[in-house]
Amino acid sequence: MNGTVFYKMTGSGNDFVMLDGRHTEPGTWTPERIAWVCDRRMGAGADGLIILTPEGEGRVRMQFFNRDGSSGAMCGNGALCSTRLASFLELAPGEGMTLVTEAGLVASRCTGPGHLAEIRLPPFELPIPVEIEAREGESAFFMATVGVPHLIVVTRDAMAVDVEHRGRTLRSHPAVGPAGANVNFVSAPTGGVGNPWLIRTYERGVEAETLACGTGTVAAGYAMEVAGLRGLPGEWLTSRGIRLGVAGSIEGGRSRDAWLLGEGRLVYTGVLS
């Protein structure tokens, strides 16, 4: 078949169409074309599109686009998938590489022989409380920019939240700024202190709930550390029951060595005609 080979990958349910930048010209991927490929009925279906292009020894440029074709500075689960795919395609060594993103340089590596990877994010300012009128079950709000802006909403039970409706309202709330933000709903575990917290995300650019959000999970981990609700490191649970790990520390009002551990699973390969 003639066309462009693509790799369908998932990071804990946050899925991507991934392309080898050696065999496609990034400039040909217009917003309209990206939106078509990511359409779940008319295209391959994905939350976003990523193009990986080698940039010298151990460095790979990761160009990320949201499902609507808009450019994104960073995507945590996309970076996990990029790490695994870059190793698979021999663009960079799996034991250690640098992803070049619009949000800065991201160190990453494959973990084990399976599908796990971990990324170290550039330092970011710590989450800060913001004033938003709470709905039933909501107790606190925090803003943080981890690659992209995130609003973290502490709730009684994240599984009970109408993410599509409440997320759509909050993603453009004046408190999050004119560019809008991803909205991460989090709640404490019901089974004890040592169990993972639950997180669900409404993602701007997708304009719907996504099954996982890597940078949002890191933002939530640091927000809970700042609020004194839980410490780092810690595990987080998606609505599909998949675990993500966040580790790091705080130094001088900023993050230090913030790591995200999660999936970068290759689902299938195909050809875009």
Produce a short descriptive summary.
With 273 residues, this protein is α+β, with helices and mostly antiparallel strands. The chain has four helices and 18 strands.
Write the layout of secondary structure elements.
Elements: E1 4-11, E2 14-20, H1 31-38, E3 48-54, E4 59-66, E5 71-72, H2 76-88, E6 97-101, E7 104-111, E8 116-121, E9 128-129, E10 138-146, E11 148-155, H3 163-170, E12 182-187, E13 197-203, E14 208-210, H4 214-227, E15 234-237, E16 243-251, E17 254-263, E18 265-272
Parallel strand pairs: 2-3, 4-6, 11-12, 13-15
Antiparallel strand pairs: 1-2, 1-18, 3-4, 4-5, 6-7, 7-8, 8-17, 9-10, 10-11, 12-13, 13-14, 15-16, 16-17
Overview of the molecule:
By secondary structure, the chain is of the alpha+beta class. Strand 9 and strand 10 form a beta hairpin. It has an 18-stranded mixed β-sheet that branches. It folds into 2 domains: 128 residues, Diaminopimelate Epimerase, Chain A, domain 1; 130 residues, Roll (Diaminopimelate Epimerase, Chain A, domain 1).
Choose one word for the global shape: globular
Number of domains: 2
- The average pLDDT score comes to 95
Largest sheet: 18 strands, mixed
CATH superfamily of the largest domain: Diaminopimelate Epimerase, Chain A, domain 1
**How many alpha or pi helices?**
4
- Return residue spans where pLDDT drops below 50 for at least 5 consecutive residues: none
Highest CATH level, the class of the largest domain: Alpha Beta
Keywords, separated by commas or semicolons:
273 residues, alpha+beta, Diaminopimelate Epimerase, Chain A, domain 1, 18-stranded mixed sheet, 18 strands, 43% strand, globular
